[in-house]
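Model it.
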Amino acid sequence: MSLTVAALTRGPMTEFEEKLRQQHEDSMHRELEALLATANKAEAEVSRKDFDGFKNLFHRFLQVKGPSVDWAKINRPPEESIQPYDKIKAKGLPENITACLNKLVVVKLNGGLGTSMGCKGPKSLISVRNENTFLDLTVQQIEHLNKTFNADVPLVLMNSFNTDEDTKKILQKYTHHRVKIHTFNQSRYPRINKESLLPIAKSMAVNGENTEAWYPPGHGDIYASFCNSGVLDKLLAEGREYIFVSNIDNLGATVDLFILHHLMSQPADKRCEFVMEVTDKTRADVKGGTLIQYEDHLRLLEIAQVPKAHVDEFKSVTKFKIFNTNNLWISLPAIKRLQEKNSMDLEIIVNPKTLDGGLNVIQLETAVGAAIKSFKNAMGVNVPRSRFLPVKTSSDLLLVMSNLYSLDAGSLTMSKKREFPTTPHVKLGSSFTKVQDFLTRFENIPDMLELDHLTVSGDVTFGKNVSLKGTVIIIANHGDRIDIPAGAMLENKIVSGNLRILDH
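Modeled.
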């Protein structure tokens, strides 16, 4: 008999369940040792550190008894714990901002693949604007900072086993840029069979029958893998004090000098060790994690931790008004202190997956922002929406490629020609999901300066110099095709049916 996920979510463990839990841990230990025996010495050394982290997570997973939060204890954060950005900006900047910058490190989470957008390889290598990839834009931003302020801000990429090799090949092209680039790898954990709670891997290989056997365990792994890699110690030895962490696909996550100055200007005993940038929730962000006050600490609450009965309440824009952008400013010495004491307490996210062959597995993950409760004087900063510009889909890609944004030194800013600061709501259908298909459907990107809402469904193409204004809905039914002609101007229009334009 095995201990199921359901059994783990009931009250206190019986003696029988405790024995079962011990059996599961012993079996897991044996399986992991057998896997390590299939690796060469250098690989086994790295993987053993990974597996230590995994075993710790697995042990805690087996101890879990139901939701990790008691809904009745959730409170709104006190006013002073989430500062408005304008208040921080009002402090201005010191004369010597270079000294602040030289204590900063920019860390980008670079573990993800471009598969959801139909691309092979690391997502950071997808072209997003004028042939520039996410990684190009990041390097340009930091190089511009370093040149403007005569500073030395390094870039650190947290890669995964999925992205490391391809990323390292590309990094050679930046050798003459004024940015030092370091990389480290996040851990590689084994997916476990949902029934047996044992790894599905047959060996340490990541290819062949083992392709789907491994996963990178979420960005909460940054703390352990950063320390294990030696990169953190190297940066501390250089006198670095803070890291600015963000997802590499968030094009709004640039170094903000006002937040940096705010952190650096605190007296030593009141130093804020963790800042989470939050922004006001809209209907599009209802699933985003939010900050709550829980047992006298600021805490990140993710949708996966919410009891089913309260999911609608969690999604409400009235009770939880802000969400986590995953732009985080974290003290380097504090990370080192908490890792050495092993006192970083991150909630486990259980991520169920069904593999191609139909096998049900679970991945145990953690989120980087969940550590907020372990740091001293942690706070949120409510930043403008412009600091949250993620590119997760081709609909997002259309926005950032359009004339809604102008590009300057790697940073995208909303065009001054747009009258209202909000971005249009864009929903492109499944024919546009893959970047390659998306690009073939637009001869060039339409003028969207006056667009509010765009929905496109079915087999639709756009000619050159199309202009979209107000609300535009274009629906080609199954078997039909709509070609929007070159130079067309659609304002508050619904287009449906069949429209073919053929060259003769």
